[in-house]
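agent> fetching stored inputs for the zinc ion docking request
agent> found them:
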Amino acid sequence: MHCYCGSGLGFLECCEPYISGARLAPTAEALMRSRYSAFSAGNAAYLLASLHPSKRASESLESLKQSFSGTQWCSLRIISSRNGVVGQASGEVEFVAFYRSGEEISQLHEHSRFVCENNQWLYCDGDMLPALKLGRNDDCWCGSGLKLKKCHPD
Ligand SMILES: [Zn+2]
Ligand SMILES: [Zn+2]
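agent> prediction call returned; pasting tokens
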């Protein structure tokens, strides 16, 4: 099975070792990808564990689990990464996650901030950005890798 995050790698070679706790995500972007995969796989425990401890009080396993129902994550697109590599203390990732709820396709377009503490990358917070306008020649929101016009043109 290909990883949820769209890396093209197998799940077991990509985000699974981070989600299972076998390994620590080496970069902020890898952590971001693994959090997207955990949302897709419905793993609330990992989403809490990868959240900075100062932010955990505002989240709960229950509220995360509720957010899973009715949302189907379609694809992840990393727009840009800044810092967030081995040896650094912080990093930022801008991404768009496309999701479907009912018939509607929506986007989470966010500029996220991460910190590294004791070699462990953690998600701090992010700013919501306006939805991207997809052109006909852009990659389709569904994650097929095809252009929008050849895949889901409506
Ligand atoms: Zn992955
Ligand atoms: Zn498509």
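agent> quick read of the result: The beta strands are 72-83, 90-101, 104-117, 120-128.
agent> awaiting further instructions
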